[in-house]
Design a protein that fits this description.
587 residues, alpha+beta, Nucleotidyltransferase, domain 5, Taq DNA Polymerase, Chain T, domain 4, Alpha-Beta Plaits, 4 domains, five-stranded mixed beta sheet, 51% helix, DNA-binding
DNA sequence: TGCGGCTATTG
DNA sequence: CACAATAGCCGCAG
């Protein structure tokens, strides 16, 4: 059905019974317009009749549905057009949750949702062959023949490759296919037999939306302050390549003057090792923690460690980094991925996730604003208590510092208890932690068995599923021609990976549920999340709303934990502070 | 030119 | 120096 604009679309959707939170599939193309599908109807608004962004915005404001789309590309397009919607169902994100790993295109998402054999799905851009085949299907005569789906059930290569954007009615048909795929995904989530999986699928979807916003909004950074910090370490900005080379040489000389007559490239670990050998220091490698203990042996060690710090700033977090990532509007922007790596953590580029502590002084709220900074306390052991159902560990979570009761249970000091608990979650098998591990097994048998099961699965190359339903692939890979020792070493590494993925992955699920809850509840106060850091949120808020946002952020943790682990008696804790700059956070 | 190793930063 | 990540430079193979 062709419509003229947003109000008419709202009317049609309302007549179809669409209410707040109901699925409305969406396909947007700036040139062609908007296609929607919901409750058995297909609607299209040509771009010639109404601005696509305004149509989506109108429907959002009046109906606030759960938007269903193929992948985060739609989220990125909406955010770029200035449209912020509340919630979505991201087929690609849910596909990664259900099936693990890699980023995939609609052809694969569709095939997996429908349970079709993947080897028959179209791959890559269409070639002469698949174009002819799709045309042949279109001419087949039956009513739906010119839709996006082939007779064998797979999507047509020409549609996957962008054919959906050719005309308004195609946008609507593409949206209808997305809606059908979403329904099949929900069925698959139900089959997982994990009541929380559907809620996780929703928050993982909305986390994709949050990532699109984080990438667009950026992190407020005071350029002058950043340049002051950098200048204090590496000096003023070089005006030419020659000047930069001279600065480098000057830094190098500060180290080399301690070893006269030696020609050494300090950037080469091998040469640094020979340098140290020349002054009587023999080391297996030259990492800082190892050199730290040798500071007194020779003055060159101290100089080298200082050189390394400056070199880090000069190469990775120097003026070049500012120029590449800090916009004229004082926002530091990187790319965000909502579920990456081993277990579905968020990742970010541009140094957003590994900014050296010194530079946090340059992260300053804009005039009239504050940061509400919140971090989850001891999130991994608490998550372990929740997902494993260990009653004793859950009881320890009642205190703000869970390592205190754990230490009492084990009969060791707090530091030892902490190292042992972390060691259990990471798979440490040597040192002091390993000895205390046996006491941990006695005190918290359910939690430790949960970890051991992850370890076993990893060693066997068996995939695991996190508490929230994310499949973590642990396939053994190609290990022919490995000697016994190397094969054992790799199996042990996979064991640690599998053990940790269950905890880290579950923590990432809870974190994202918290983050999207904060996103929703803080928006009416004019506040926006500007940084997500695994267990920490930085929210940029109007100064007069700081305390209220802080209250909301804390309340959101209870709300998210209640949704993620209903009925659990595990207590989650959060530390919330209102600050003007990130470095003002007290430890 | 691509990739593994080394190193540093963060949670 | 366990688990995860990004990022830069060096040295070596192709």
């Amino acid at each position: 059905m062709l419509l003229a604009g947003g109000p008419q679309a709202v009317e049609e959707l309302r007549r179809a019974g669409v209410r707040r939170g109901a699925p409305v599939a969406l396909a947007v193309d700036a040139a062609a317009g908007v296609g929607m599908a919901a409750a058995g109807r297909r609607l299209a608004v040509p771009a010639a009749d109404a601005d696509p962004a305004s149509v989506v915005d109108e429907v959002e404001r009046v109906l606030r549905p759960r938007w269903v789309w193929w992948d985060a590309g739609t989220a990125v397009r909406l955010v770029a057009a200035g449209v912020r919607v509340a919630t979505c169902w991201d087929l690609a994100a849910v596909d990664r949750l259900l099936h693990g790993g890699w980023r995939v295109d609609p052809a694969v998402v569709w095939a997996r949702a429908q349970g079709l054999p993947l080897d028959a799905a179209p791959t890559g851009p269409p070639d002469l062959w698949s174009v002819a085949a799709d045309l042949d299907e279109d001419g087949g005569g039956d009513g739906a023949a010119d839709g996006p789906v082939r007779r064998d059930g797979h999507l047509k290569a020409t549609w996957v490759d962008g054919g959906w954007a050719a005309a308004p009615d195609r946008l609507a048909a593409w949206a209808a296919a997305a809606l059908a795929a979403a329904e099949r995904q929900q069925e698959r989530l139900r089959q997982l037999d994990r009541p929380v999986a559907a809620a996780v699928a929703r928050s993982e979807s909305t986390a994709e939306l949050l990532c699109a916003e984080l990438a667009a909004d950026g992190l407020p950074v005071d350029r002058a302050e950043a340049e002051r910090i950098i200048a204090a370490v590496v000096g003023p900005r070089a005006r030419s390549e020659a000047e930069a080379a001279a600065q480098r040489a000057r830094r190098d000389a500060e180290v080399l003057r301690h070893v006269p007559g030696l020609e050494v490239d300090l950037r080469s670990p091998g040469q640094v090792r020979s340098l140290l050998r020349r002054v009587g220091i023999e080391v297996a490698d030259t990492r800082a923690w190892r050199l730290e203990a040798l500071r007194d042996r020779h003055p060159v060690v101290e100089a080298l460690l200082a050189w390394r710090k400056a070199e880090r700033v000069a190469t990775t977090y120097g003026y070049g980094w500012l120029d590449r990532h800090l916009g004229a509007d004082g926002r530091l922007r990187g790319e965000w991925t909502a579920s990456d790596g081993a277990a579905g953590r968020m990742t970010a580029t541009a140094g957003l996730h590994n900014l050296p502590a010194e530079l946090r002084g340059a992260v300053v709220a804009e005039p009239g604003h504050v940061f509400v900074r919140a971090d989850l306390g001891q999130i991994e052991p608490r998550v372990l208590a929740a997902v494993s159902g260990d009653r004793a560990l859950a009881a320890a979570c009642a205190t703000d510092d869970l390592y205190a009761p754990v230490a009492r249970s084990l009969g060791v000091d707090r530091e030892t208890a902490k190292v042992a608990m972390l060691g259990a979650m990471y798979g440490q098998t040597t040192g002091r932690g390993a000895q205390v591990l046996r006491r941990l097994e006695a005190a918290y048998p359910v939690a430790m068995a949960y970890l051991a099961a992850g370890d076993e699965a990893g060693r066997m190359g068996r995939d695991v599923r996190t508490y929230g339903g994310r499949l973590v692939r642990l396939g053994a890979g190609d290990e022919r021609r490995l000697d016994e020792r190397e094969a054992r070493r790799r199996a042990a590494a996979r064991g640690r990976y599998g053990r940790n993925a269950l905890v880290q992955g579950a923590a990432a699920e809870l974190f994202k549920m918290w983050a999207v809850t904060v996103r929703a509840r803080a928006a009416p106060l004019g506040a926006r999340i500007v940084l997500c850091l695994h267990d920490e949120l930085l929210v940029h808020a109007p100064a007069d709303q700081g305390d209220e946002v802080a209250r909301v952020v804390a309340a959101c943790l209870d709300e998210a934990a209640g949704r993620w682990a209903p009925g659990t008696d595990v207590r989650f804790v959060v530390d919330v502070q209102v600050v003007r700059r990130w470095s003002d956070v007290r430890g």
